[in-house]
Amino acid sequence: MLQFELSDTTDLPLSIPEPALSPFHERLRNATRFCHDEVDGLFGQFDLAERGSYGDFLAAHARALIPLENWLDIARLMEGAAARAPALRADLDTLARPLVEPAALVWHKSEAALWGAAYVAEGSRLGGAVLRRAVAAGLPHGYLASTHPQGGWRSFLRKLDRKAAAGGEAWRDEAVASAIRTFGLYADAAVAWGAMRGR
């Protein structure tokens, strides 16, 4: 609380509330906007209505999501959260696309790093719900259909904001860095399966 004296004739302080801090997830969204746009542009190069291109799209997601979920242990991090790797593997099996097991992540683990990465992993469910509509009839879409339960994303953001408020500025900086690194993981996976940067 900031305090200023009204005048020389009174000892009563005038209390002016400090500006409310924006929720941390807004800072995180703004700090990663460029990364998010890059990933959207790269994955947007896959044609989800064409079986081969859709298979490449899923293989690219597998290259990022499977090691990320293993590193996160998402169900342990957030009660009630479910991994999407099983649905992704099932879709690839249906398409007869053998999966080369992605290399495990060796990133440093801290609470801030986990929550920053989870922001990206869980946020991608929202995009999946939109992309599902572009998948051609007859193609498997269990992975893209693995969305949040009603209110799930808002609940995640509230938990993230509470963790960030308690963690302090260093926690928040580390979470932002982790989110940026996670977007990079997805971008590199898309490029590995044929997407081109700068298009």
Describe the structure in your own words.
Residues 1-20 have low confidence and may be disordered. The chain contains eight helices and two strands; from the N terminus they run E-E-H-H-H-H-H-H-H-H. Helix 2 packs parallel to helix 8 (169-192) and helix 6 (111-131) packs across helix 8. The protein has a two-stranded antiparallel sheet with strand order 1-2. The protein starts with a strand and ends in a 7-residue tail after the last helix. It has 199 residues and is mainly α. Helices cover 58% and strands 4% of the residues. It has a single domain (23-192), classed as Heme Oxygenase, Chain A (Up-down Bundle), CATH 1.20.910. A hairpin with a 7-residue loop joins strand 1 and strand 2 (13-16).
List keywords for this structure.
single chain, 199 residues, mainly alpha, Heme Oxygenase, Chain A, two-stranded antiparallel ribbon, 8 helices, 4% strand
Q: Which helices and strands occur, and which strands form pairs?
A:
Layout: E1 2-5, E2 13-16, H1 24-31, H2 33-43, H3 51-72, H4 74-77, H5 85-94, H6 111-131, H7 152-167, H8 169-192
Antiparallel strand pairs: 1-2
Helix pairs in contact: 1-8, 2-8, 3-5, 3-6, 3-8, 6-7, 6-8
Within CATH, the superfamily carries the name Heme oxygenase-like
The tally of beta strands, per DSSP, is 2
Return residue spans where pLDDT drops below 50 for at least 5 consecutive residues.
1-20
For the record, what CATH class applies? Mainly Alpha
Examine the secondary-structure arrangement and name the CATH architecture.
Answer: Up-down Bundle
The value of Rg in angstroms is 21 Å
